[in-house]
Amino acid sequence: MSRPGEARCGVGKALLATFQRLHPTRVSALSAELSDETRASFEGRSALRWIPMAHHMELSDAIRRALGLGEPNIEFWQQGWLSAMDRPFLVGIARAALRLDSAPTRSLLRHAPLTTRQAFRNIGTMETRLLPEDEPGLGFWTVRGFPSRHYTMDCFIEGCRGGLQGAAILARQRVRTTLTYVDHNAGDFEIRIDLE
Questions:
Q1: Which of 46, 74, 87, 167 would give a disulfide with 108, using CB separation of 3.0 to 4.6 Å?
Q2: Kind and range of the H or E element at 16?
Q3: C-alpha to C-alpha distance for 155 and 89, rounded to whole angstroms
């Protein structure tokens, strides 16, 4: 039997801080949607602590309901991941990736699986496949085996798309993300990443 998914508490804290910054009048309504157990998992906890993925997804789903499906949620996740990448458990990877390569967006995308493993565990495998530099587009982000029977996969996909867009902003570029493949039963999806 596979182990249950987990998320770093700091990712949820970054999302809560982003929501409070962008939508201060809606924080009480968002908090009211969360179970006592989920709220408690973020309060007074170390950002490095692993919490059940169920609590992270309960928060993510509540944000998605509050903001709307698709682009509004993707844009929120873009800002949320920018905030999360300032957290101690991710900032070192992001800074190193920016310094390692003359093409910082490609470098951040190359390191995206490592960054994601620092934020989540037991939620499938993730990889980046970069396209050759002489081809149009940057590459693909692929997730296999996401536990879609337990968590809202479309919400996670939108979070990944926003996170990839946020990573490009760190590199002072803009990218467009497009969902090119999804299999909800298998928990597999692929996102194409193109420079804007």
A1: 167
A2: helix 9-22
A3: 23
